[in-house]
Amino acid sequence: MRKYILNSETLLYEIKEVSLKSKLFKGFLLLAGSIALAVLYLWIFTSVLGVDLPKTALLKAEKARWDARLDLMNSKMDRCEASLDALQIRDEDIYRSIFGMNEIPASVRAAGIGGVDKYSFLDGLEADNSLKNAAMRLDRLTRRTYVQSKSFDEVASISKQAGDMASCIPAIPPIVPDPSKYNFSSPFGYRTDPFTGEARLHSGVDLAMKVGNPVYATGDAVVEAVNFEFFGYGNTIILNHGFGYQTLYAHLNSVNVIEGMKVKRGDCIAETGQSGRASGPHLHYEVHYKGEKVNPTNYFDLSMPKEEYLAMVGKRESESQAVLTRRPFSVTRR
Known about the structure:
Layout: E1 2-7, E2 12-17, H1 20-48, H2 54-98, H3 106-109, H4 130-159, H5 162-168, E3 183-186, E4 189-192, E5 199-202, E6 205-208, E7 214-216, E8 221-227, E9 235-242, E10 245-255, E11 262-263, E12 268-272, E13 282-289, E14 292-294, H6 306-326
Antiparallel strand pairs: 1-2, 3-6, 4-5, 6-13, 7-12, 8-9, 8-11, 9-10, 10-12, 10-13, 13-14
């Protein structure tokens, strides 16, 4: 490279050779200055003016779009969860209760998702773990929805038998409601035990009457158990009516049914007695609903006209006789 300089004496331009070292040094200074200037401009834009780099701005815009989608998904999950909560309340308090179905355990409703290791790959992606939390919440909602769907399938299946439910509920007195034949001797609730004198829960009602009065099934059922004991309830019958209902008839003198036998409302299943731990001849009658002993008087009306009751019993006897005529069948009285 040649460099021309003006000679002040001759007023002519003369060629002056520039060394390679000088050239490299000047080139290095120019490059270093350019880099320093670029860094200075970058610092001013990013730190002072707060302007993002193109790639940073692009990534921030992409993150903002995904955050908006995540917020929208969380809002939708909020609505879905509220709807699912309402369906669960309706399912437990109305549908399953009406048909005498047991409540779904809270542990099943909680719908576990198999531990947090399933989402370990999302750890550290965000400071607040919003993506991980959303994924876990979505899985829980999916599981809860599945549980609720299966519950409704079960309710739908049971509801197809709703026509049978009215005849299965224990809705009539277990004896002919003739006030001249019985005395309502003890209600449901706490009372003084006639043998120990201590206060204890009387889990049924006592209908005092002479030995040998007929006892009738208070609803369609299957005979679940027949027990013969010297103490306690003495001779007892337990009927399973389905839909969460059971009835118990105790202190019987004789029993007309066997375990597994199907009975209809109004069928004579036993005779009153004084077996077991009883202070006098009477029928002890209980109603159980979903495993809990409840007040039987909430299910029958002792003021029911005896003529109406006897007409129902007579109709059942006629129907049973017609069945026996078509297909002989014998029941051993015990």
